Amino acid sequence: KKDYPLTAYSIKLRNNYNQKDESNLASQTAKLLKIEHRVLNVSDQDIINNYVKAIYFSEIPILDHSNVSLMLLAEKVKEDGFQSVLTGEGADEAFGGYPWDYYFNFPGGKHLANLLSLFSNNFNRELNKEYKNYSQNILFSPLSSIRNLFYSKEYLEELKNKKKNYYPVTIDSNWSKVDKFQKSLQLDYEWLLAGHLLLDKGDRMAMSASIESRYPFLDPRLVKYTDSLYKDWKIKNFKNKWILRSLAEKYLPKETAWRKKHLFRVEPVIHGKSYPKWVEELLSPESIKITNLFDYKKVERLFKERLNPKTFSFNNSFIQVGLSGVISTQLLYHLFSDKSLCHLKKSVRGSIPE
User: How does DSSP classify residue 88?
Assistant: First the structure.
């Protein structure tokens, strides 16, 4: 078979000041490997203009605006004539790349649920009772600690009656016997990877442009092998993915191989200072009443206070995430059900059906 030169892609967020820019490091690495590197510049306005389209293809509420930038990247890849891409999902799950294991070892906190309940204390102490009753089902949901902030009484009661969370995690009877580190990896695979990174953030964003994503780190043989490795080979001297980084250092610059992990997160500009008119319409009393999922007074209060960092201090980011969930849920209802919650201009809808 004929070999073709590889092309690497990355995203640079022009206006997201809190996001670490790693495009220069990516370019240096690509140059060393003799790979062409193409950078897609994404602005806040690009996120706002394409948000509706991203929600349409996600088909579920999204809490992080990075979905939008990934959809735009897929469109760029398609425009350049490619049909498939290789991505790195699965490496963190296989080699302990996320910091949950450290949380398990916090003083006074044996389980991640206990850590999350600390956050819920700051919002509403009543949620602690729910954690105690349903700790296995809602062990690893970012929504569970903040949902009482927005949901209506009727919908909260429905959730309690069903005793299930939006993203339930299936845990077998031997869960209590599993090593804490292994628990974190299992949760990464079952919830974060399968229910988010590979679904709405991965496959659906890529396939919106007819791009197939392929995941070398999810080769069943590799997953089985990494599952047999000692924990100390994955986390050593407070360095996660130690064995993978050690191997990478043979081929990549040391700065790249051992760089500190930074989550790829896009600021929630859809409800920032210059939010679109249709966001206000989605959060109006009339629209909230139609869906009957949220409490309008709660949503209104938090929306007004969302830009005041002193209002919630440490928990402000959770409020931002919650508002993103409310807006995307309302928008989904508008796109797929009622279509009377807001008015979307053609420039906002793009190619999606009316």
Answer: -
